[in-house]
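Reopening this ticket.

The earlier resolution said the output was attached, but the attachment link was broken on my side. Pasting everything inline this time so it's all in one place.
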Amino acid sequence: MNAPIRENDPTELDRFKRDIDLVDYAERQGYQVRKEGKRGDWHQLEKDGEVLIVTRKADHQVYLNTGDDRDKGSVIDFAKTRGGNGHGLNLGQVRQQLREYLHDGPAPVRVYAAPVEVSRLNALPVGDPDQERQQQEDRKTRLIAEVLGVNKELTDRSYLHGRGITDSTIDSPAFQGRIFTAQQNEHKNTAFPLYNEQGLASVEQKNEHYKNLLPLPKNGIWVSHPTQGKDTPVERVVVSESAIDSLSHYQLKHAQDPRNTLYVATSGTPTEAQVALIQRVIDKQEPKEIVLANDRDAGGRQFNMNYMNELHPARPLVPVADQEAYKEASRPVEWHATSDKYHTALKVSYRHDSAESGLAHVQQLTERVARMNGTQEAGPTIELEVQRSTERETVLRLSVAKADTAQLEVISQELYRQREQLRPEQERGQEAFIRVDYPQAKDWNRELELTAQGLSAEQIRAQAQLDEQQRAAERDQREQQRQAEYARSAAMERAEQETRRQYDERQRQQRADDNSPESQAERLAEDRRFNQAMMGAAVADAGRQDEEKSFRSYRTAQEAAAHTAQFVHARDAGLVLLKEYINDNPPPTGRKVDEAEQAELRDQARFAARPAAADLPAAPAEVKVATWQIDELEPNTTGRAEAWKEILDNSGYSMRTSEIRSTVDEQGIRRAEFDMTYRNDQPDIAIIHAIVTNTNARAEAGREQYADVRVAESEADQAARQAAAEVAPIQPHNRDRSLDVADKPPLESTANAPGSEKQVIIKVDEPAITPGERGQAEAVQAAVIGSGAKAGDIQSTTATDGIRHSEMKVTYRTDQPELSRISHTLDAVAEQPGSHVVEHSSDRAERRELSKSQEVATPARNTEITR
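Inline output:
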């Protein structure tokens, strides 16, 4: 009999961690697994733009939020943070929720890689930490040198001028040696170096519609010199999100308040390392005031709330053992702001001497929230919940919609004043040490732009409202498009699944019918008719219609068309799979087709006779340009365009690609493009045509790998390329991948040349045969040998779906007297359903031409064979 569950049993929490599959639990909360390790040792989960990595630690799983390094832990932390519809749960509520999860049934068993034995680890050579640090330092030095070069200087001011920054600002002593020009090929970007205590840490590059931060740890900050010059006593430190905002703030504000000021920027969202660096700057410079000059939006307010908690007046150094350390002031109250897609939350922690004191703090904050909620016309906007309360600590969580983040900022400012009052008198700092300075527009550079246009403060605020309305409308439009795309993809997936189910059901029924004795006898009769047709192919009329021929077939025409469609690609539909992969992912296998479309695909699989050479342009075709436009799917990501360009560059086809051009919009989405050049007189133009049409068609169909990928070109170029593709020697459905753009001599140069040996490969796909039974591959081999050619051994494999895949090598010489019979036999095999002749187009054309010449030269011999 199981022991009763104690309400606060500490072993229960360990059991939750050990027994609950964190991945399955997260999936039930709406997260989706996007990637996972080959050995199952990690999973990447996503929901509403949030990315989590789940790994294993000891006997349980843990997670990490890639966008917030403070959001991590076990399933307990996951439920505590994300429960309650994103508002969080207290520990009692977490226990109740996880108990209910376990009672719903066991989670799926997830196999993880076995831990490495300690003895094996001890036997491995230990890496040299100094060497690893040196390698990291060398990599950082190389990346920075590639951007800044040897002579670091500002040679191009066009970007700064375009942002409204004047030469007098740029030439200020504050910014000397803090802005450079990055010269890479023909591109010139404005570079802002980031520093830490060890020196140069990274570089941010900016240009019109472009921004880039080197792929290095974000542990440095951009910092100016004092406005009165190096080594002058600093009175004020201004903290902003970007160096451009710092320059704009200086240009707008410094003349009215010329105190000696140091500017600091974080190049976006501040990390813990950057906040610690800013505090070290304060410790060293000992300013009288900190000005938070971040954007007037939810993100900027969140940064300010956390800065008010983390930044303090200069800390004194005190001896600790044989060293010195900064003396931290007591923290009777702390807070931390976080946000998700729709909400901002403020976690407040009080430390007190007794439960009664904690209750007083809670009561005080509750009354303040009630007063603020009472002033809102639409009703309460702030939710307050006590998450934990002990004798020494009380933790609360406040949450608002993102649009109401300013209300939490007001509360954090009051908490800042309250903390100074609760500290011992000797630890209290000056009351107005941290001040918030918001721009009248969204950010300081936008205010600088509007000010330069001659707008008044009131007009700037009105324009800022219009800007925000426009951004909101654009966000709503993108969200609607995203939801519509998801809905369309889901509908297509359901339709494909149903079509696949119906197709599989028909296949199972067909296989059951085909195993009858009557069907086997019919196939034997078809074999005999096939052999007779092959042996008589040398005297048959090459132009007669398909229905006049009788060949060995699949068990049914439907089965033949279905399996033929697996390896025959319709030329005009452009079903080329781009070297069998897309962005390091296997391409879709394609949707199932109905009987009518199967018949259409089968007809399109016939070899089309090549039009006369007179139809081709005599002069070399001009170079055409198609522009590939590829957008990233998430903010602050990159690499998609590079992956597509690599696919095209490594495909082996004759097109060429240019360098990538890219921009980044206000939402952080990178939009990239590059040009693809090609010529319509290249032998593989049909393949290039198929790649372009296939890419656009799959993107319009909502395929996930092709989302936000477009190939733009003029209608005239598209029509010319299609016309050239129809008469190209290499077609998507008849090419040998090993011979794609191979340099074969033209037909004219080989027509009168001495005989040479040619090689083709014949592939046959047919239902699996029983041991001792003669299949279609054996019939083809006998027919080829009977025609005078040499056929190698049959190499066969049988797939899990019951299809036998066979392959044989065939050789012949162009000066053989049996060439005409060999040629007709190979053509007959190529037209046989289930058989595929892999042969270079120039070899095939030469074979047919010589065969026709041989027939004209030896009519008597043909007559003799006919008898």
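Reporter confirms the inline version is readable. The CA atoms of residues 32 and 46 lie 5 Å apart. The longest strand covers residues 757-767.
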